[in-house]
Amino acid sequence: MVRTFPILPTILALVCGGLSARPAAAQTIPSPYRYIDTGQEAGLFLGTMSSAAGRFDLGSKSGRLYGARYSIELGGPFSLEGVGRILSTTRDVRDPARDQGDRTIGQADVRLASLDARVKFSLTGRRTWHRLSPYALAGGGISWDMAGASELDQQLLPDDRFSFGTSFLALLGAGVRWLPVRSVELRADGGLELWQLDTPSGYLDTTRDLGFTSAPPQKEWVSGLQGSVGLALRW
Predict the structure, then answer these.
(1) Residue 52 domain flag
(2) What is the C-alpha to C-alpha distance for residues 113 and 119, in angstroms, rounded to an integer?
(3) How many domains does the chain have?
(4) Which helix (H) or strand (E) holds 189?
């Protein structure tokens, strides 16, 4: 008796095995990380600033800020950024010769301009995680009031007039970038800022009874909290 080899069942088994093996061989696990292959960006932003007016309530109040920035990747997780912006707000005009509690005679417009440079540190390096890139930043620059003196200031004695002048600005903050496509970036950030206010010389006159229990400082540091959102193009 001649034994026959089961050709048809064998062919079907080989074909089925080949078909089932291909998807397994081609299967990949997508990574949540994507490399950032662009090195520069420029964009606009707007936000708000909540600031302290200082011991004598002479500084700027909270207001809106808007500006522009340019950034370049330095290598690894670091990038360098230049920012120019304006804080649009008001300040109290105060007359120290009047009684305590009745020294505010009105408000003046403030256009607080600033230029600063910042170093950003990306927590994900030159990559995004699910298209997001959180970062920390620190920087410094200068700030000045473009509005200058108001008509109300002219009603005060020259030594009692407040002038913002030009002040050093320091900042520390954090934020996150979202890159939905290669050339477009949306970002949100916030942080703490510090700058100095000069005390008018009239407030330093020890012969005047201004109700201070200690000698007024010639300069004082004030702080502000800011937050902003922006849109940038990358290349």
Answers:
(1) yes
(2) 20
(3) 1
(4) strand 184-198
Q: Whole-model pTM?
A: 0.82
The amino acid at residue 54 is G
Domain that holds residue 129: 40-96+103-206+213-234
Q: Which of 145, 161, 154 is nearest to 196 (CA)?
A: 145
The enclosing H or E element of 88 equals strand 78-94
Q: Which two tokens stand for residue 185?
A: 């970036």
- The answer to whether residue 18 is domain-embedded is no
Q: How far apart are CA 122 and CA 62, in angstroms?
A: 29
Which amino acid, residue 174?
Answer: A
Mapping DSSP to helix (H, G, I), strand (E, B) and coil, where does residue 60 land?
A: strand
The CATH number of whichever domain residue 82 belongs to comes to: 2.40.160.20
The two three-digit tokens of residue 56, written as one number: 């004598």
CB neighbour list of residue 43: distance below 8 Å, 6 or more residues apart: 68, 69, 185, 187, 230, 231, 232, 233
Residue 2 covered by a domain: no
Q: Which of 33, 124, 29, 140 is nearest to 73 (CA)?
A: 124
Residue 174, in any domain of the structure = yes
Low-confidence stretches of the chain (pLDDT beneath 50): 1-2, 4-5, 15, 24-25
